[in-house]
Design goal:
It contains 16 helices and 22 strands. Strands 16-17-15-14-20-21-22 form a seven-stranded mixed sheet, with helices on both faces. It has a six-stranded mixed sheet with strand order 3-2-1-4-13-12, sandwiched between helices. A hairpin with a 3-residue loop joins β14 and β15. The radius of gyration is 22 Å and the shape is globular.
Length: 516
Amino acid sequence: RTCSIQKCGTELSGKYVLAIDAGSAGGHCLIFDLEGHVVSSAYREWTYNTPAEVAPLGKEFDAAEFWDILCQLTKQAINEASIASDQIIAVSAGSQRQGVVFLDKDGHELYAGPNIDLRALLEGLSIDSEFGSEIYRITGHRPSLLGAPAKLRWFKNNRPHVYESIATVLSISDWIMYRLSGERVSEPSSASEIGLVDIHELCWSQRLVEMLELPHGIYPELASPGSYVGAVTTETAERASLAPGTPVVMGGADTQCGLLGMGVKNEGQVGIVAGWSGSIQMVTAQPIIDPGGRLWTGCHVLPQRWVLESNAGESGGAYRWLKGILFDQPDTTADIYALMDELAQEVAPGAGGVLAFIGPRAMDVGRLTPSLGGFIFPVDPSVGNIERKHLIRAALENLCFAIKANCAQLEEASQRTIMEVSIGGGLARNRSLIQIVSEVLGMPVAWFDMPQVTSLGIAMCAATGAGIYPGLEQAMEAMRPKPIVVEPDPQRAQQYEQCYRRWLSTAEWLENLSGV
C-alpha cells in the first residue's frame, strides 16, 4: 500500500496530522504540525458499562457512543486549530492495550471491551493451568485472563450465538482504523498485546489457534505502524469534520507510541510512560522472554525492535485517588496537581519516615495476588507532625521505588545494563517526581516536559504514512522535542539508597502478612 502524498518543500506549510488516542480514562484528539508541535487538542473522559451477567468484574463499552465521542473530539480539535479539514494530510490512532473489539461479517460490533474487562477470569485461569508456559513462550504475555483467547472462550461458553458471528478480532486502535477507513487491518505492537501473536515470528499464532481451539479466519492482515491503510470514508468525514479521502495511517499500542514520541529506539534504552499505569519498557534487538516469568514481551512500533516490560501498575490512577482523598473540596480555580507538586518539594527525601504502598509495585505476572497496602508511619502521626505534604511525597517515592525495582528486573531478565532512561506522560508533569526518579535511580533522566508523548508518536506514524518522512525513525528525528536532562543530587541519591532498601523490605513484609 502506498500513499500519493509526497513531501514537496513549501507546499507543506499549513499542513497537519491528526492523532487519536483512546486511553483507559478517556479519548484524546490532537493536531500536530509536521515539526511535532501541538496545535490543538480535545479530551473527554468516558465510562464503561458493567452488564448484570458479568458483574462485578466484567466491563465493556458502547462502541457507537465511544465513536461518537471521538468524532466530536476531532471536530473540536479542528475548530480550535482554526484550520480547514483538508489541511489535515493524514490521521492515525493508538489505544490502551489489551482492549478488544469483535466484529461480525457486516462490520457491526458484537463486543467492545477495555483492558479492565475481567469477565474471562475463569476461562483465563483454565487456559493457563493447561497451557500457560507454552502460551507465555509464544506470546510473551500472561495471565491469559487479560487476552483475547480467554474472551473468545468466554463467548463460546456463555454467548454461543455471538461467538458464531465473530468475523474479525481487533485491538481498539485497529477498530478506530476500521471506523475511519472501513479497512480491517491490524499491526504487531497492539496485536501482540491481546495474546494472539507469535512474538518471535511476528504473525498470528497458528499454534494458539490449534491448541486453544480458536476460530479460524478472524485475524486480519498485519500491517506496519506508519503504513497507509486507506482513506477516510464519506460517512466518517461528515461526522468528524474530516475531508473525505484523507489518508488513514496505521498507529500502534499507546505505550510503544510513547517510546517513539520520546525517541527511545536503541537496545538498552528504557522509556517510562507515566500515565494511568507506569509502563517501563526496555528496547531489545530480539524478543526476550523473562526466565522468571514475571515480565511482558511485546513489539516496538519500530521495525526489528522489541520491548521487555516491567510495569509498575496503577500509578497515575493511584495518584489521582490520593488527590481526591486529600482535596475533597478543592478550589476549582486552582491546579490541584500543581499544588501537590509544590507541597512535595517542601519535604526532604524519606517523606518524614512515611512509606506509601498505594498502587505501584514490582511487576510479577506469574503471581497476581493481592497484598496489603496504604501508608505506614514510623510513630504516631500526631507525634511526627505528619501532614498531607508528607503523604504526597511518600506517594511519589512509592512510584519511584517501584520504577527502580522494575528496572532491576529488566536488567536481570535481559542480562543488559540500562543505558539511558526517558520519561514522559501525564504524570511526568510533576517536577518533584522527575527529580526523585533521577535520585532514586542514581542516574540522569531524560524528561519530556509534555504529557502527550503517546499522541506525538501517533502523529509521527501519520506523517510517515502521508509520505512526509521516509520512515518512522526519520519522523522521530524531525518531530521529537528536545528533552530536559535531570541530574541526580549525589547526597540525596545516597539518602535514597537506604530509603529504597527500607521500602523493599517493607513491601516483602506486607506480601507475607497478606497470607496469600
